[in-house]
Amino acid sequence: MNHGPSRILTCPHCGTKKEVISLLSGNTAGGVVWSDQYVEFPFYKVASDIQKCPYCHKYYVIDEEIEFPLSPNQVKVLTGDTDNCNLDCFLIMNTKEYDWNTSTNNTGKLDFTDMHRAYIQLNKELNNKEHKRKLYINYIQCFNTHFFRNNDTQRKPTPVEWVWFVDCVSKFIPLAFDSEVIFVAELQREIGLFEACLKTLRKFELEDKEQHLDFRKMIAERARNKDTGIFIWKTIQKEESSVFLRENPDSLPLPTV
Description:
This protein is α+β, with helices and mostly antiparallel strands. 36% of the residues lie in helices and 15% in strands. β2 (6-10) and β3 form a beta hairpin. The protein is globular. The model is unreliable at 66-70, 84-95 and 240-257 (pLDDT under 50).
């Protein structure tokens, strides 16, 4: 994992800037994928979707990068050579701000206390559908990490905390994409809607009997046993190289799209 220049974020509430991580390269080897779609990659770190301003302490959602295909000549300009490069994974940024004189490990990842505060604030403010999706997914995964994924957690969620979690899942499901049917079934299982989970999986089986069959079986088995716990779906053993390039506007050419 090779760090790139610091990505500079600007708080939409007060204008304060903060530095977060960017990568020049990384890979997914050794990654762990959980049933709630939370992923842990030891050699691939990115900035959190939900950020906290260090000055006014308010929260905001950041946008994803834009992907462009690059030609071998453009790769050579950016890196000096084209060996061992996965061209499909190159990213070049035109609209984001970077400081090419600094580098940071900071992802801006929130703990559960901050994520809960972010949920309360942003749930009232956000109108953008994709930003709402990011908020809900991040809250769901942070909740699971705090209470279930983290072995150091000493307590289970209180009834009030559980109600907040169910509320978040209930808000996310209507925003789920058609391609997220299995994820919806998993979330239904996690909040105890076991029959709804099995019904969702049966609908999916009518359309595609093979896609993620192992994952579907894992979910269905736990739903039948009335088990709401998250679990590890799969690990990624093979190294899958990914290179991410950020544009220095003073020296790098724009990609030809």
